[in-house]
Amino acid sequence: MATDYKIALVGASSLLAKELKECLTESPLAGASFVLLDVEEAQGQLEQVGDEVTVVQVVGENSFEEIDFTFFAGNENLTRKFWRNALAAGSTVLDLSGALDEEPGVLVRAPWVSDGTGSGAGSPDLLTKAVVPANAASLALALMMDRLQEIAEVRFAAATVLQPASEYGKEGLDELHQQTVSLLSFQNMPRAIFDTQVAYNTLASFGESAAANMSRAEGRIRRHYAVLAGERLPELRLQVLHAPVFHGHTFSICIELDRALPIAIIEDALGGDHLDLVLEETDSPSNLAAAGQNDVLVWLKPEPPVERLSGETSRFWLWAASDNLRLAAQNAVECALDMRRLRPHGKVQ
Of 18, 52, 86, 135, which one has the fewest beta carbons inside 10 Å? Predict the structure, then answer.
């Protein structure tokens, strides 16, 4: 039970915060009391966490007294402004915004991947300043590599990650929607977030004046995967593209093992906790199929094609999809549960 815990969500009106509320409601922390914090424009909004309806309050320097866990789910500037106040008040900080990625003393974590401790990750202790739940794309990739590495050495792995507009918050979603409507009605398109046409368009970069930054997004995926991989998981060649969709990561991954294995063994490795193996081509993973799903959907395609039931292969493609917001929120809750052992129950350190 977690009835004595007090949890704050900073950036409570964001897309990530909405998913985080649902995941917290389904977790052992559901019995906690919740404080919803955001910028002044969101003040007074009614939000539901579990069975409680809570009013969003304006975040300030003194908002974190007696808070056990603080989730930062808004923009990076909001996190940078207030995370030290949360720490000073004795709260455990979990940053989903990406602001604290390279801050000294802050750990990148994903408890689902080999209990979360790649050689570069380390385990949280009483000196840990804060935790960054690993990026959702990095987590999905590490989960797949982790399972494959259990059955054979992965000699080569290369992945293309297709990112949705929701990776850039509500503003990204709104601009994609407005561009779509504008194109269909032959009007000028808004470009404040992407500084280019993202509607009906797959891109490797955005415009010069874009508020969104794909290079930074790719850098974050690389860093987080490297931490989760440590020296155990394979090196991963990576490129990130922007797909003209609202939600959901999709992945095209090329794998070569050090030896040929029966297809059935590879498929068994890609099933189980947090991975959902798809066997039929007609049910191919997609961002739409992954929406609201807790697991990463995975489909295996041997190269060259062989009989699934009787063939062997060392080279194959994975096509996978996951709900980017759902996976990020789930990982954040798992990180909080992982950090819970460092706190006296019902008390602020």
Answer: 52
Fold agreement (6-133+329-342, 139-323):
no
Burial category of 90 from C-beta neighbours within 10 Å (exposed 0-12, middle 13-18, buried 19 and up):
middle
Cα 307 to Cα 264, 303, 318: the distances in Å are 10, 11, 16
Q: Indicate if the pLDDT at residue 42 is higher than 80.
A: no
pLDDT digits (tens, 9 = 90+) for 231-245: 999 999 999 999 999
What distance in Å separates the CA atoms of residue 164 and residue 68, rounded to the nearest whole number? 33
Question: Within 10 A of 59 (CB to CB), how many other CB atoms are there?
Answer: 29
Distance of CA 125 to the CA centre of its chain: 23
Reply yes or no: is the peptide bond before residue 244 cis, omega within 30 of 0.
no
Q: What is the pLDDT of residue 122?
A: 61
Half-sphere exposure of 226 (CA within 13 A, CB side): 9
Report the C-alpha gap between 162 and 20 in whole angstroms: 23
For 139-323, the fitting CATH number among 3.40.30.10, 1.10.10.60, 3.40.630.30, 3.30.360.10 is: 3.30.360.10
Predicted TM-score (pTM) of this structure = 0.92
Q: Which CATH class is domain 6-133+329-342?
A: alpha beta
Sheet containing 249-262: give its strands across: 237-242, 154-163, 249-262, 312-322, 296-302, 275-278
CA distances from 17 to 31, 49, 52, 56 (A): 18, 10, 15, 12
What residue segments make up the domains of the chain, in order of their start?
A: 6-133+329-342, 139-323
